[in-house]
Amino acid sequence: MRDTLIAGLVIAVAGLVGMIPSARLVRRFWGVELAASGTGNTGAGNATKTAGVTAGIALAVADGLKGLLPVLFAHWSGLSTPAVATVGLAAVVGNNWPLVRHGRGGRGLATSVGVVVGVAPSLLVWPGLWSAVGWKIGGGPAGFAGWALLAPFALTVGAPREIVIMCAALGVAMAVRRAQGNAGFVREHAISRIVFDNDPRPTTAPDRAVLRGGLGWMTVLLAVGFPLYVWLIGGIAGDAEVVDGAWGLLVGACISELGAKWTFGELFREGAEKAGTPVRRWVALRAALVGTGVARLIPAGGAITPVAMSWASGKKGTAGAALRATILNYAGLMLATGAGVLWVWGRYSPAGLESLGPVFGVALLAAGLALVGLTTRLRIIAWMVPSRWRAKAERALSEHPLTIRSWLLLTARVVLEAITLDLTLRAFGVQLVPSQVIAAFGLSQLVGGLPGPPGGLGITEAGLMGVLAVFGISTAAALTPVLVFRVVSYWIPAAVGVIAGGMRFAAGRPAVIGEGDRVGETIKADRDGSG
Predict the structure, then answer these.
(1) Percent of the chain residues past pLDDT 90, beyond the cut
(2) pLDDT of residue 497
């Protein structure tokens, strides 16, 4: 009982320490009122922009100490690891939502750094890597990627469950505070605020009505988002077996997944070139990331993947190439899955499923070949378009025979995706033969691609777990690697796609190059990725 009282007292004090208005340092020594200047945020980023680098560093150190000192005191008091992690979270919550200043504090990044330094300083490698590239993509998206994905990073390096949960909570607190912005939560521009920390609303203090609405939405987001995130990332990390060299295997999985996305972009680029609207390789990669990540964030998002890819390329006339690449992607998935299913069932014959495997495998092969044939006759689907737009649709659709390069790209995409799964499974001590890996990956992706939750959330995971169970992998052994695989293969690329798509949107690059002005045409072509 005594230890519980001490822990509660230290947690409460940490919350009060977090509420210390450190922004007054900037007002006292640099004469700048942060709440009424720049973005209106009271953190180090706004201090740097409005009062200079020295002021920003000073405020960052002060905010960091608000997280570090309570954690060090908790260690000195002999509190348990869960209690120490809670003390750090209390300091961050106090910094983000103080009882003064209309409940409007900073974003909590510097305070979170102080907490992590006191609890598990090695984990700062991940946000540190993102801060190093922040000069290129912007501090907002770099901070989002560094902290929102800190929990998966902690999980992959074998951090204790309590630390993983703490990292998840830090990411949620950052995202929720960004969503709230300067004047309470409203739905407009929410994604821009969360990912880019860009809030165009007035920096004046919110009125009571807006504040009440903001607190209501924050309560809902915290009550729903935090437990879900903890359950998916932290709560399942407890007794997972992590093999020696797991970190290297997972880095290899990320590289393999990037290669898979690149091959998908190359399929799109190949179709665009045949249609007379060439795009650059990095633009094709951006289109692939947006199409396979961002578009899938909405229900049945796979149906709008071609539209998202065409938009992300910044050029008109690429919708047909995007549709062709998407159909070829599903065709390759079906062909590889069908071959894997036939091989697995022919060699291992899972009990009770002896007759199902060959039929299902042949059906997948036939469907894959049919889709490949469809890409060479895409204009036959133009009859589905209303007559007044049919001619335009026929011109937009890109159809041409597959080359050897097309088949190689198609094969490489599926193989690289399967390698991503294999490396992730091996990082957690689960080993399958190649045919089983391809069958497991393909079947789960086909199930997850059915109309339903955004990104196949829950459906893909359940499908993969079910296939692994058929191969004799227990639920306890499969759960963690399956969820980590989804982070590597979908959520990280989706986050990068959000950043890439947001930068494309913010740039406002024109889709149509005007006639006549050759100098302007050359400049615009260089900007939108043509040539």
Answers:
(1) 7
(2) 76
Give the whole-angstrom CA distance, residue 334 versus residue 445.
Answer: 10
Q: How far is CA 279 from CA 315, 317, 326, 409, in A?
A: 8, 11, 17, 17
Q: At what angle do helices 404-427 and 475-486 cross, to 10 degrees?
A: 130
115-127 burial: b if 16+ Cβ within 10 Å, else e: bbbbbbeebbebb
Q: What residues contact 166, with CB distance under 8 A and at least 6 apart?
A: 85, 86, 88, 89, 115, 119
Measured between alpha carbons, how far is 415 from 260 in angstroms, rounded to an integer?
8
What are the start-end ranges of the H helices in 77-158?
81-96, 109-119, 125-132, 134-137, 139-148, 150-156
What CA–CA distance (Å, rounded) separates 407 from 403?
7
Phi then psi dihedrals of residue 207, to 5 deg: -80, 175
* Residue 531 banded pLDDT, cuts 50, 70, 90: very low
CA–CA distance, 216 with 3 (Å, rounded to integer): 34
In 395-410, which positions are buried (b, 16+ CB within 10 angstroms) versus exposed (e)? ebbbbeebeeebeebb
Distance separating the N- and C-terminal Cα atoms of the chain: 71
Q: Helix 492-507 to helix 281-289 angle, to the nearest 10 degrees? A: 120
Q: How many CB atoms lie within 10 A of CB 365?
A: 18
| Per-residue b or e along 323-354, where b marks 16 or more CB atoms closer than 10 Å to that residue's CB | bbbbbbbbbbbbbbbbbbbbbbbeebeeeeee
Here the tokens at position 111 are 């305070």
Indicate the DSSP class of residue 293: I
Q: Using the structure block, give the residue that is written with the tokens 């605020």.
A: 193
Distance, CA of 295 to CA of 325 (rounded, Å): 15
Angle formed at CA 185 by CA 153 and CA 33, multiple of 5 degrees: 90
Task: Give the single-character DSSP code of 207.
Answer: P
Q: What is the DSSP string of 348-400?
A: T--TT-TTHHHHHHHHHHHHHHHHHHHHTTGGGGGGGS-HHHHHHHHHH----
Q: Which residue has the tokens 């796609």?
A: 497
Cα Rg, the chain, nearest whole Å: 26
H or E segment at 523? helix 518-528
Residue 153 CB contacts under 8 Å (≥ 6 apart), including other chains: 123, 125, 126, 167
Handedness of CA 253, 258, 259, 261 (dihedral sign): positive
Cβ contact 294:497 at 8 Å: yes
Higher pLDDT, 94 or 208: 94
Q: Is the pTM of this model over 0.70?
A: no
Give 342's Cβ-side CA count (13 Å radius): 14
Cα–Cα–Cα angle for 467, 470, 475, rounded to 5 degrees = 75
What does the pLDDT read at residue 392?
A: 56
Task: Name the token pair of 518.
Answer: 């050759």
For residue 438, the SS3 value is helix
Q: Does position 420 have pLDDT exceeding 90, yes or no? A: yes
Could you tell me the two tokens for 476? 């306890």
